[in-house]
Design goal:
- Keywords: Signal.
- This is Cytochrome c.
- The chain is built from five helices and no strands.
- The radius of gyration is 14 Å and the shape is elongated.
């Protein structure tokens, strides 16, 4: 079961990193912010595979704050929707970590990663 969690989480992280790398060239400040998001994602992944709920919680709370920020001028409705999905999934990740639910946290992390990939796909199309 633990291997299955690690595998799913690893795939999610790879997809998120690939999506971030393939996105349109961001500004320098955007690059710094995206690196922070990836660091928090890695922190959550580490917490998931070691069942360190404090790590998961710290990373999830930090990412949830990112979901509250405005990233793009002249945002489209599609982008706003993707940002809401990201914010919601990081919120469920916070709740799962608070309940020390490894399965709930893993599912929320996977959903969060999926939202990252979808958002970057959207940004590449624009």
């Amino acid at each position: 079961m633990a291997f299955q969690h690690r595998f799913i989480v690893s795939i999610g992280l790879v997809l998120c990193v690939a999506a971030a790398a393939a996105a349109q060239p961001p500004s320098d400040s955007d690059k710094v912010e995206m690196q922070k998001k990836l660091e928090y994602s890695r922190q959550i992944l580490d917490g998931l595979v070691t069942e360190d709920f404090d790590k998961i919680l710290r990373g999830a709370r930090a990412l949830n704050e990112f979901g509250k920020r405005k990233w793009i001028e002249n945002e489209s409705a599609e982008y706003r929707m993707q940002n809401q999905v990201f914010w919601f999934t990081t919120g469920t990740l916070v709740m799962a970590a608070e309940k020390e639910s490894i399965d709930g946290a893993t599912l929320s992390y996977t959903q969060m990663t999926h939202s990252c990939v979808n958002c970057h796909k959207l940004l590449r199309r624009q």
